[in-house]
Design goal:
The protein has 163 residues and is mainly α. The chain has eight helices and no strands. Helix 6 packs across helix 7 and helix 6 packs across helix 8. It starts with a helix and ends with a helix.
Length: 163
Amino acid sequence: MTAVISFAFMIRNTSPVGWVPLLALKIIQEGSLLPFIISGVLVAIPIIIFCIFMDSMYYGGEQWTFTSYNFLNVNLLYGLSKFFGEDPWWWYLAVFASTQYIVVYPFLLYQTVYGHIKTQWSKSETPHLAYYILFYFVFFSVIAHKEARFLLPILPFCILLIG
């Protein structure tokens, strides 16, 4: 799993956004900090180094190219994404989700915020799917530049919850 997450991060920089709360829960609930660190050192770091090497070779090999850092630096730290437009924090909730899910949107809201969480908590289980969706949604709502495609990775999970 660590290899898949590492490759996903190097291919699409925003892909680990939803994994953050899930990994934190796993470390806190199961006390698996040591296995997390070991898999990070033995699996994630070599994959990241390999991907940085491949990116550097692609761009001429004269200097190291860390695509994920460049993405973060340009879009969030320097804020150049604002030139592509800015929307209020509620845009995804009011505009994107209502146009994406149309008639089933109220059911998605109910099931994500209330139904799935209540069901999982009643069985003394963690509602991982709801946490993943909500964290992803909140994270991208905070960023000023919004596009509907940014939330497409959670679309299958939302459909699963509606079902």
